[in-house]
Amino acid sequence: MSATGLDVFDKTLQTTNIWLKEIMQTVGPDRHRAYRVLRAVLHALRDRLTVDEVAHLGAQMPLLVRGLYYDQWHPAGKPVRTRHLEEFLAQLAAELDDIGPINAEDAARAVFAVLEDRIAAGEIEDVKGMLPAQLRRLWPEEA
Fold first, then answer.
1. CB atoms < 10 A from the CB of 70, how many?
2. Shortest CA distance to 127 belongs to which of 34, 23, 55?
3. Domain 7-136 maps to which CATH number in 2.60.40.2470, 1.10.490.110, 2.130.10.10, 3.40.190.10?
4. Quick one: what percent of the chain has pLDDT higher than 90?
5. Burial class (CB in 10 A: 0-12, 13-18, 19+), 88
């Protein structure tokens, strides 16, 4: 039986839950915590990309995750010029400071691993190409 009565909504709920379960393998079994990590990392990444690249990446996300990705986005003044790993991780840590202790680097790596697995390889390469070398190191190693 359909949870929502609409296949498109059921599929995005299922896919989003898969993404959250993968993130929970790193950040722990709390689904809300995984959601907050996904949201924070996607926002930090989004704000580092050009407006065109934001749209290209967002187009490949499940509907529900795409909404989360664009939530509260103001494209004026983007991309931000975060060039250093410490600055990027500090931004994540500040966004996540109310969910208890969390390693911002682990959080970023968890979300980037999901993106690496779930988004077309060419798009991921485009995204990585827009990031400084220090931030690219957060992505999974090429096999």
1. 16
2. 55
3. 1.10.490.110
4. 88
5. buried
